[in-house]
Design goal:
The chain is of the alpha/beta class. 47% of the residues lie in helices and 15% in strands. It has an eight-stranded parallel β-barrel, surrounded by nine helices. Helix 2 (28-41) packs parallel to helix 4. The chain starts with 6 loop residues before the first helix and ends in an 11-residue tail after the last helix.
């Protein structure tokens, strides 16, 4: 078992019409839930770390947890930096990506979507050159997703769909390995006011312009109603929380999407399990008791049509 890149995973996913789940990790229980379930299902999986996770758990702990998961499950895993550079200037962004490459990440994302097209290309190209020289693959982003996730904050009026006319130039000039696009998904648990709508016409055109090239969807949590209802039942305030319907995710995977990012669903699953446990067992105070229930909830989220594809 070893840390691997996404290259072979994405080739198989594209050809097979399915997507790989990329799950954000923050603690031991989340890592265990994802990797144990993936091993049971024989499903490839990507573990990704955000800037917020690096601040909360510290990189040394996170990489040690991933190493332990590989030893425990016998699986090859991808360790990916999610939204690298968010909240930093260009030099700070490059140094953060460089640090992740140097400390063992097998995949990194540079998010230059808040810069101009030309600046995004320049920053991404610099990261790609360094990462590729060290055997690490790079994801970049074109377009802007609305919503809030750790250091990524984009108001709905600032969100911008990816322009299909830019993707060929961006990929050819940067040498990037995969591309996150904006087709209507959104960060966080409150993605839509009303009915969910994704621009599959944009996805289709991008797929036609970049045949065989892996596309990534961020902000793609389903915001599972069961967990939202449980949180609200036991004292939470999540009214109006909505996500991406599963049929839309499967449709995107049948097109060009090879990686689907899941973060909010994990948070909701953990919180629902803990709230329910506290309500039903007010005498419990052992974290192992309520975190076990939270971990079990996360296990239900892992399969994205990739079972048996390992």
């Amino acid at each position: 078992m070893a840390l691997v890149t996404t290259t072979e995973m994405f080739k198989k996913a594209y050809a097979g019409g399915y997507a790989i789940g990329a799950f954000n990790i923050n603690n031991m229980e989340i890592v265990q839930a994802i990797t144990e379930t993936a091993a049971q299902l024989r499903s490839p999986v990507i573990l990704q770390v955000s800037a917020g996770a690096r601040k909360y758990a510290k990189p040394a702990y996170l990489t040690a947890l991933v190493d332990a998961a590989m030893k425990d499950t016998g699986m090859d895993l991808v360790l990916h930096l999610d939204h690298g550079g968010a909240g930093l200037d260009k030099e700070g962004a490059f140094e953060q990506l460089k640090n992740c490459v140097d400390t063992g990440f097998s995949s990194v994302m540079i998010d230059g979507s808040h810069y101009s097209f030309e600046e995004n290309i320049a920053l991404t190209k610099r990261v790609v050159e360094y990462a590729h020289a060290h055997g690490v693959v790079v994801e970049a982003e074109l377009g802007k997703l609305a919503g809030i996730e750790d250091d990524v904050k984009v108001a709905s009026h600032d969100a911008m769909y990816t322009d299909p006319g830019e993707v060929e130039e961006f990929v050819s000039k940067t040498g990037v390995d995969s591309l996150a696009i904006a087709i209507g998904t959104s960060h966080g648990a409150f993605k839509f006011k009303g009915e969910a709508k994704l621009r599959f016409d944009i996805l289709e055109e991008i797929g036609n312009r970049l045949p065989g090239f892996p596309i990534v969807l961020h902000g793609a949590s389903s915001v599972v109603p069961e967990y939202v209802d449980t949180i609200n039942k036991y004292g939470g305030k999540m009214e109006g929380a909505t996500g991406i319907p599963e049929d839309m995710l499967r449709k995107s995977a049948s097109m060009a999407v090879c990686k689907i990012n899941i973060d909010s669903d994990i948070r909701l699953a953990m919180t629902a399990g803990i709230r329910k446990h506290f309500a039903e067992h007010p005498d419990h105070f052992d974290p192992r008791q309520y975190l076990s229930e939270a971990r079990d909830n996360v296990k239900k989220l892992v399969e994205l049509g990739s079972a048996g594809k390992l």
